[in-house]
Amino acid sequence: MRKKTLQADNQHAPHIDQDREFMRIAIELASTSAEQGGGPFGAVIVKDGQIVAKASNSVTIDKDATAHAEVNAIRMACKTLDTFDLSGCTLYTSCEPCPMCLGAIYWAKIDRIIYGNTRKDAAEIGFADDFIYEELMTSLPERKIPIVQLLPEEAKESFRLWTENSNKTAY
Fold first, then answer.
1. Cα dihedral 54→100→47→21 (10° resolution)
2. Residues 14-48: pLDDT tens digits?
3. Among the listed residues 31, 20, 11, the one whose alpha carbon sits nearest the alpha carbon of residue 114
4. Per the residue annotation, which of 35, 70, 135, 157 is the catalytic one?
5. How far apart are CA 33 and CA 42, in angstroms?
6. Which pTM does this prediction carry?
7. Residue whose C-alpha is closest to residue 112's, from 6, 20, 3
8. Cys-Cys crosslink for 56: which of 33, 116, 133, 135, Cβ 3.0 to 4.6 Å?
C-alpha cells in the first residue's frame, strides 16, 4: 500500500501556519539567489519550531556541483546542532529535492520534507533531474557513465578495519 503525500494546504495538516511561514522563507531564499546569479532554490531546516539552518543554491557561485540549497542547509544544520543526525527536523525547500539532495536528506535522517515547486516545474526551466532518476533504475552496465569495479579484495580492508574498530560511531 502506497503512503499518500501530505498536501501542506490541507486543513488537517499539523502546524500549517508555521509550515507556510518557513516555506515562505525558503521561497524568498530561492528568489534572492536567482536575482544574485545563483540557482533558484532555497531551503530551511527547522527543529522544535526554530530555524537551525537556511541556505540557497550556490552551485555557480561556489563552483561546486553539490552546493544545492538542501545540501548547503544540511551541512549548516549539522554544524549548528553539532551532529550528523537531524532526526526531529523538518526541511522546507522551494522545490522537490533532486536525487542527490534526497539521498542527503535520508542520510541526515530528516523527519519531514515540505516543498514548493515540483521536479517537473524545475524541468520546465532547464533543471531536468529525471535522467538521474532513470539512471538509478538502470543496471550498472547500461548506465551512461561507465561504472567499473576494481580491486574489491583490497578495498574490503577498510571495511574490515571499520568492523573491528570498537571506537567507531555508527550512522
1. 50
2. 688 999 999 999 999 999 999 999 999 999 999 99
3. 20
4. 70
5. 8
6. 0.88
7. 6
8. 33
